[in-house]
Amino acid sequence: MRNQKMGRRLIKENLIPFGAMLGLLFAMISVPTSSWAHKPDSSTEVPVHMVVTVKARHGAQVPVVAANDVRVYQRDKQDTVTSWLPLQGNRAGLQLFILIDDTSRDSVALQFKSIEKFIDQQPATTAVGIGYMRNGMVATAQELTPDHALAEKALRLPIGAAVGFTSPYLALSDLMKKWPETQDRREILMITSGIDPLGGGFSNDPYDNPYLEAASNQAQRGGFIIYSIYTTGAGVRGRGRGFRTAFQQAGLDLLSQKTGGETYYLGLGSPVDFTPYLDDVSYCLKHQYELVFLAKGAKKPTLEPVKVKTEMPNMGLTTAEDGYVGTGI
Are residues 235 and 134 in the same domain? Predict the structure, then answer.
């Protein structure tokens, strides 16, 4: 009897340290497992949201485009389209900012009637803001407002060459950085010469301009679509001159291509009338869809090249060159 009690006591005493060791072992195993579970899983498919503009070619009317008419590709791999909705009705919300370069010639005021008409044509679901680009920033003349008459009153003569040429792309980035998050579309119309002595140097080379590249990437991450109308700048520096003006226009064109917008210009001088260009911007805003497709999640949020196509005849789809792909966690 005494031997049995001693045996049970020995077993109990040995089990206590054994249990402690076993618990410690499990704890050591569980630490890396928990840490691994919180790492981004790049194999997970994540939804990517983009705005697509539908444009008819050769003067044809814009038909209704269905989801099964749309194809999305990433590096030749076709992705699954999960949603394709027209941005109309209760989904027509739009925030539109009109930016005028303060270094523009005062002759740009001759276009104010056309700009006012353009603002009037926008539906009640569109909030319009007016700003002036100078010194790498945007001086807001009118915050975004659904009161279109109020936005029209904010139009004024630009200051001209006295303000000094800096970078329209720095000013654009300044506006986007301060723009609050929203479920509505965010689109910008720039009226500028594109002169950028800070980023483009003497030649205004757009392919070697860090401010243009930064603004383009920021716009694509934030879902901004950028339109631009070229107009000459004030003073001697603002005159349209050969290759430098061509580079300035190319920079605006590059920005619009990357963000899914359009650029408008006529030769090296200012357009006589903005009306046809503004009409085309209105056309684009009226024929946009929200596209959602599934992409392979990245290890960190990143911009990935995207191509959106359709096989419908006489139709073109315009969107940003890159989609902003999340991590999937």
Answer: yes
